[in-house]
Amino acid sequence: MFRINKDGIKIHTTKDGVDIALKDMSDRHLTNLLNIMRRKSVDGVLIRWGCMDYDCVDYDEYMIFGDEVLQMINYYEYFNELKGRKCSK
């Protein structure tokens, strides 16, 4: 997933904690990331929410799959970044 900084630039944070602009990611890095995202969409993502304190014990969890996962992790933003590069070459 990425965030948008104050200048409007889409920033991806690597698993090592390094911030990199989407436009500066290599084609290979984008391709590998898209493959990981597609695998996550097939395997599913566990969503947990709720509160557990002395006033409230309300907790639930559920799995999401497919396009719902891809939407949540901004897959199409990364895909369009790579696709834009391929089309401009």
Notes on the structure:
The protein is of the alpha+beta class and 89 residues long. The chain has one domain. Helices cover 42% and strands 29% of the residues. It has a three-stranded antiparallel β-sheet, with no helix packed on it. A hairpin with a 5-residue loop joins strand 1 and strand 2. Helix 1 packs antiparallel against helix 3. It is globular, with a radius of gyration of 16 Å. The chain starts with a strand and ends with a helix.
Order the strands across the largest sheet as they lie in space.
Answer: 1-2-3
Number of domains: 1
Shape: globular
Kindly, what is the distance between the CA atoms of the first and last residues, rounded to a whole number of angstroms?
26 Å
- Radius of gyration over alpha carbons? 16 Å
Tally the helices: 3
Instruction: Give the strand tally.
Output: 5
How much β-strand is present in the residues? 25-35%
Can you summarize the main beta sheet? Answer: 3 strands, antiparallel
Fraction of residues in helix: 40-55%
* Protein structure class: alpha+beta
What's the overall average pLDDT, rounded? Answer: 91
Helix/strand order, N-terminal first = EEEHEEHH
Low-confidence stretches: none
